């Protein structure tokens, strides 16, 4: 299998919801698989991606991830990949299961457009709490495996 890491995550750090979620994710990135890039920064240069047809404007409208092979993953698929990459399967499954993915594919454009308003609703705290719960589960799984009790 070809290695896809590191993943470069292009996100809007000026948005409290986006910033909170990415910082929570990065805390759990113990294998250093993610590099975060703030595409909202004044000096952000999207000319490097012109050949791929990816612009700063597109990145600000939808989460973009670029893997080490130069492939782009966007939106819901990007969230699923990010969460799976940092060992948070319940959140990856939320974004990627065959039941929730179609709903999230329809909802994500609305969420992205209204992310600044959603930042004031308490969602950043929800993501933080969910992330910490997921990290505790991962730690327990890891501990069980180190004690010879895992089911691989």
Strand arrangement, major sheet: 2-1-3-4
Report how far apart the termini are. Answer: 19 Å
Number of strands: 4
How many structural domains are formed by the residues? 1
* Structural class computed from helices and strand pairing: alpha+beta
State the helicity in percent bands.
Answer: 40-55%
| N-to-C order of helices and strands | EHEHEEHHHHH
The description of the largest β-sheet is:
4 strands, mixed
Nearest-integer average pLDDT: 88
Alpha carbon gyration radius:
16 Å
* Residues in β-strands, percent: 5-15%
Count of helical regions: 7
Written overview of the protein:
This protein is α+β, with helices and mostly antiparallel strands and 152 residues long. It has one domain (7-146). The chain has seven helices and four strands; from the N terminus they run βαβαββααααα. It has helices at residues 16-27, 56-61, 75-85, 89-96, 101-113, 115-118, 123-146; strands at 7-11, 34-38, 64-66, 72-74. A four-stranded mixed sheet has the order 2-1-3-4. β1 (7-11), α1 and β2 (34-38) form a beta-alpha-beta unit. α1 (16-27) runs parallel beside α7. The longest helix is centred in the last third of the chain and has 24 residues, at 123-146. It is globular. The two termini are 19 Å apart. The mean pLDDT is 88.
């Amino acid at each position: 299998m070809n290695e896809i890491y590191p993943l470069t995550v292009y996100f809007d750090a000026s948005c409290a919801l986006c910033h909170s979620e990415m910082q929570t994710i990065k805390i759990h990135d113990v294998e250093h698989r993610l590099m975060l890039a703030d595409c909202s920064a004044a000096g952000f240069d999207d000319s490097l991606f012109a050949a791929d047809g990816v612009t700063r404007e597109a990145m600000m409208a939808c989460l973009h991830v670029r893997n080490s092979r130069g492939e782009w993953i966007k939106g819901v698929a990007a969230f699923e990949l990010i969460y799976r990459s940092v060992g948070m399967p319940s959140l990856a499954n939320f974004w990627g299961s065959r039941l929730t993915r179609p709903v999230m594919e329809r909802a994500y454009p609305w969420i992205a457009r209204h992310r600044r308003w959603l930042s004031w609703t308490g969602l950043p705290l929800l993501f933080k709490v969910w992330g910490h719960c997921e990290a505790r589960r991962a730690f327990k799984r890891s501990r069980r495996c180190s004690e010879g009790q895992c089911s691989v």
